[in-house]
Design brief:
With 173 residues, the protein is of the alpha/beta class. The chain contains 7 helices and 6 strands, in the order αβαβααβαβββαα.
């Protein structure tokens, strides 16, 4: 039975079997995946199953709710910082990108990310490099990105609320 291969996703309706087949096809690639759906539809469960069926399954799966990150802490939280980067930064701190090294970074609620921060995220995803706050040294990263949102991103692009180039970059599948 095909569905028993999935750790987190129940169900065997034709629609759900289509989803499970897509998961099987995409899991062993490093393609960036965008999951769309209403709140409570299991986007994170799908992301976890993609990770668990991938070659990265023995590495970390790290979930970040982008909607809950304060704009002032965005770079420090995602890219890290070095000691002295700002008042209160009394030690080096790895960001979520560095913590997820070799694994999967699940960026939830990407549709809630302010336009002002989308360019910074795009650059990191495109170049697979980050620069911690206060540092001049770029660090290469090896991460698989899975993003999710309940927002209508295509409409948001038309309204200049979401960058089209970022949408393109996160939507390989």
């Amino acid at each position: 039975d095909n569905q028993r291969q999935f750790q987190f996703i129940p169900g065997s309706s034709p629609g759900m079997l289509d989803v499970l087949n897509i998961i099987n096809k995409v899991a062993d690639t490093d393609a960036n995946v965008l999951l769309l759906g209403d709140n409570g539809t299991g986007k994170e469960l799908v992301a976890r199953d993609i990770h668990n069926k991938s070659g990265r399954r023995n590495k970390i799966f790290l979930s970040v709710d982008l909607g809950s990150l304060h704009e002032n802490l965005f770079e420090s939280e995602l890219f890290g910082h070095v000691k002295g980067a700002y008042t209160g930064a009394d030690a080096d701190k790895a960001g979520r990108f560095e913590v997820a090294e070799g694994g999967t970074l699940f960026l939830d609620e990407i549709g809630n990310l302010p336009l002002s921060l989308q360019g910074k995220l795009l650059t990191a995803i495109q170049q697979l490099k980050i620069t911690p706050l206060g540092s001049a040294n770029e660090r290469e990263i090896d991460i698989r990105f899975i993003c999710a949102t309940n927002q209508p991103l295509l409409d948001m692009v038309k309204e200049n609320l979401f960058r089209e180039d970022l949408l393109y970059r996160i939507t390989t599948v």
